[in-house]
Amino acid sequence: MHSMTWDKNCLTLLNQTKLPGRVEYIRCSDYQTVAEAIRRLEVRGAPAIGAAAAYGLVIGARQLAEGSGDFWSGLMKIVQELKATRPTAVNLFWALDRMAGVAGRYRQSDVQTLLAALEQEAIAIAQEDRTVNSRIAANGAALFDQPLAVLTHCNAGALATVGFGTALGVIRQAWADGNITRVFADETRPLLQGARLTAWELMQEQIPVTLITDSMAGWVMKQRKIQAVIVGADRVTLNGDVANKIGTYSVAVLAKEHGIPFYVAAPASTFDFTMHSGDAIPIEERQADEITTIGGVRIAPAEVEVFNPAFDVTPHALVSALITEYGVLRAPYAPAITKIQQQLRGEQ
Ligand code: MRU
How much is the ipTM here? Predict the structure, then answer.
């Protein structure tokens, strides 16, 4: 199963809002379709939206090359439009800044050369995500040296990336090593990424999974049914604070109370090296009907006031380790994260 495929002229996205009931694809031949797909969560998960947006810019650049308007200002406008789709996952901004950087380097070249460079960069972003997933999986799986059950929240699997996932990548590897007995998947209200996507992915791999509602996580811990928590991230700040799907913070607090390690698996592209603490992370708020309806059926009074933040921030003090492609980071996080930043600068 792949969240997206690229075939030179077109980006094809697996429509995640239809899963697991229907396997449907969206063919994106204009950048507006890509932007809409990100906004609607048809493609979702931090690394996946970064890669989709990069391909979206390639498509948008081709649209501009066929038109008559000013190419450069049009391109910068598309970058901004794609950036405006979702505010929290930093991978979106990281990928688009990287694409804009390439465009800048080829600004004086002919347009075909620039288009080819953009396509190459988008493909590189996608390809690197696959490699990075494997490294995170290997680094994370090394934390598990005996069979245990884990809990995860939301979906940080193949669907959320271009490869086979961050948190679920670690789980897949640890399962292959014989060190996972079962995965408890929080359903992840309101959009049910855990119930619809994580349960589906794990069942496809025949990894034993038990679905629970978010409110059951504490009781599952109290009953010693799990020995570790592992989740993905949408943005990690310099001090190690972690933005992830709403409900992650509650899981982290519960894990602390029960003395259970709380691991976060995330690639360097999810680290925001410009932000010092999670307090500054913009948290997306989504529409009320995500909470007042389920599957199109109203479950709350029509006019009820709703608060629907899509993400929360887990303070670094609750994070036992950050699993990255550069290794497993432990507190104090700031020096370890700064070291990755320096390594990245060296690689450029
Ligand atoms: O709103 P979503 O479904 O895009 O939120 C996704 C998450 O919160 C994931 O846990 C996160 O992006 C990590 S994906 C590897």
Answer: 0.99
